[in-house]
Design a protein that fits this description.
The complex is a heterodimer. By secondary structure, chain A is mainly alpha-helical. In chain A, 75% of the residues lie in helices and 0% in strands. Chain B is an alpha/beta fold. The chains are: A mainly alpha, B alpha/beta.
Amino acid sequence: MAKFIVKRLLLAVVILFFVMFIIYTLTYLIPSNYVETTARELAAATAKQGGKTYQQWLEQLNKETGRDKGLVKGYFTWLWNALQGKFGESWRWNLSCTEKFSKVIWNSFALGLIAFIFEIIIAIPLGVVAAKKQYSVTDYTVTCVALIGISLPTFFVATVLKLVFAIKLGWFDIGGMHSRDFISTTATSWEAFWDVAKHFVLPAMTLIFISIGGLMRYTRTNMLEVLNADYIRTARAKGLSERKVIGYHAFRNTLIPIVTLLGGTLPGLFSGALITETLFSIDGIGYVSYYSMTTGDIPFTMFYLTLMSILTLLGNIIADILYAVVDPRVRVN
Amino acid sequence: MSKNKKKNYLSGSDSHKISKENRIITKYLEKLRNDSKRDPSQYITSMRDENNIVELDNVCTYFFTDIGVVRAVDGVSFDIPKCSTVGVVGESGCGKSVTSLSIMQLLQRPTGQVVGGEIRLSNEDGTAYNIVNTPTSVMQEIRGNKISMIFQEPMTSLNPVFRIGAQINEVLELHHSEMTKEQIHDRTMEMLEMVGIANAEGVYNMYPHELSGGMRQRVMIAIALACDPKLIIADEPTTALDVTIQAQILDLLRNLKDKINSSIMLITHDLGVIAEMADYVVVMYAGRVVEKGTAHDIFHNPCHPYTIGLMKSKPVVGKQVDELYNIPGNVPNPVNMPDYCYFRDRCDLCDHERCSGKYPSEIRISDTHVVSCHLFADKGEVVGRSQIIPNSQLLEDRVEYNKNRKKKMAESVNANGQTDKTGAREDK
């Protein structure tokens, strides 16, 4: 098993090398307006204090991103810096990329984790029930709700939730992380936590609603497949109660694909929810990366895409490992 | 082609009517089946003959599908005597497996339902369960304990994620709650050795995918025999195995049967296997028994034209033929069974005058030999006739059942002087 994991990790490094090269090439090929715009802005801002001229800024920025050395050499320069943890200064946030990241990531992680837990608690039991009572009213209702969840786009769900809970009922704020009357200097830590928690309710609800449908359908399909298997008939022929047949024999087999799927999404908790965070102005990694990308913040964009690539690769490896954990047939000796 | 299409075509209203009626009937039957507080007098009966372990009497198993009622088993009667092997033969789709699943109550519910007749399972103390009316909760104590089943596909019949030992332990834990962990482990090891697994301790900790098909079938047999059942149903136990393993598994079954004094109901379409194993043979065709008797009766004096056809279609070693024999024609459509002999259109002995009548009765032509064919109408005593249970009768039963429930409810209300709210709601 250890050998298998090491092999997969080494392979992941190779894949990452080429993925990052493609990403670097793409950002390199973006019309250089972004760099020029940034240089011009910086020059204008510092001109009064007798700072660098536009040309000097342009040279400095190109040097920072390694763009003055050409594509291949520039990539290796960037890679060498990145390996040392130096992703450079973010142009948009005036902070180093890693600093900005560590400031916002826990907001994203908390939001993602809440949504993930609720998704599992709600979707899996519903899927099992729908499969158990196939073609019943329960099944059709659950399937229908799931389909709505899958089909509605995030911005629509978010807007409806805002309309109902923020505007009509006035229970929550429309967006942001803190209430308008929240004064950070006088609040206790409990009050601060409570204030943030209240602002997480609507985004979490949005995330849960849109992700529940997929997982539920997945559970239902797999459960149905397992329930028609011969070993379920064997379990019944042993005289086991229906509860034991479904809850133990069938569910243990349904877990194989579900655990694999969920395990693969675990690293995704760190990648943030770009659309939802933006819609609710939650200061998370998704929101920050969105603004970095739209304003042409090349260092931060590179940093975020590196992170995403690593998380995706990690997700695949975790899925493979978990697959071996839950299914004895694929265990590698 | 176009004619055929028209015959099988269902208009929207027809299909709606069928599924509505199906829903009403299956709902009623499910309610009966799940009623765990059912009065035992409704399912405890007594055996007709104490020497039998299981008696089937006019068993009807229907599938309520969207294109109509499929009468998969339609008035099947035969007995399984103690410590004997009964072979059930017939071509694919003739209701062999459905008969066995009816005995176990393992049909694909709610579509598949045993709607009538009696399946009596002897308790060996004068009483018997009528499995047709036994609620699921009681049935769970019978399955795996008094009747157990070996399935066709050993490759997929074991749960892939549990160890072999755990799967055998499970059935013991369920039916012998008085046994300690060590006792269960010892019994499992004993079973594994009994079914001829050499490396029992190793296999105990293995997963099913680490075993071959023959080994898995041995494990299935170990599970089936763990609780010393009175009846073992083997549903084509050797079909998926290669020939040398087949012989081993059959040998094993025969020896074990004698060791634990149980009966075997052996389902197969291999006449060679039947000849070797069975004491009694039941020949089924299109959901009905066409001929039954001792193995000697069936193999040396086959009477029903279908049995004769089956015997003829068996290739004989050493005999040169240009073409192997097969029975011409097809089984009639199970949704629309004719009311005359089901085999008439394929029969080469068919006598148009006599065979034009209703479906033939069962005729006893010797002490042990029963055949249902018009050709033997005057050669023996009529012993019975298979019955169809129409939907209308089931619907009437349902009305009756609801009436009785209401009456009971009303009585209990009067006795208690207060309304049983939950009961009243259920009644609606």
